[in-house]
Automatic annotation (TrEMBL):
Gene3D superfamilies, A to Z: Histidine kinase-like ATPase, C-terminal domain
Sorted UniProt keywords: Kinase, Transferase
InterPro entries assigned: HATPase_C_sf
Protein name according to UniProt: Histidine kinase-, DNA gyrase B-, and HSP90-like ATPase
Superkingdom of the organism of origin: Bacteria
Organism (species): Epilithonimonas mollis
A single MF term (Gene Ontology): kinase activity
Upper classification of the organism: Bacteria, Pseudomonadati, Bacteroidota, Flavobacteriia, Flavobacteriales
Length: 113
């Protein structure tokens, strides 16, 4: 299913300035898991093989958790509208900040209503 991202550009510009390092952006992803009341968070790092000629040492970073997901009826409002505060204490840019880490983001969620 194709979805479209929307943003509040003023808010994104203001908040994204805080994500000047990949570490800070990575922490935001972990914070998203914590805000989803996760009991467990799994971090997998897929490294490039030593025999490969590749410009990057890391191919993929995956952050998974068992927290509360987002129900299909809330995807537009909670996942695809970037720069809105959808959670208590949240800034609404965690998935946007992850572009500091990589060029492609894949979000999978399971939520119940």
């Amino acid at each position: 299913m194709n979805r479209k991202l929307t943003t509040n550009s003023r808010l994104v510009n203001e908040l994204f300035a805080n994500y000047i390092s990949t570490f800070t952006a990575f922490c935001e992803l972990l914070n998203n898991s914590i805000q989803a009341k996760s009991k467990n968070i799994w971090i997998d790092i897929d490294y490039t093989l030593e025999t490969e000629i590749h410009p990057l040492l890391i191919k993929k970073i995956s952050v998974k958790d068992d927290g509360n997901g987002v129900h299909m009826s809330d995807i537009e409002k909670k996942l695809l509208d970037i720069g809105t505060a959808n959670k208590d204490g949240g800034k609404g840019i965690g998935r946007f900040a992850s572009f500091q880490i990589g060029q492609e983001i894949e979000i999978e969620t399971i939520g119940y209503s």
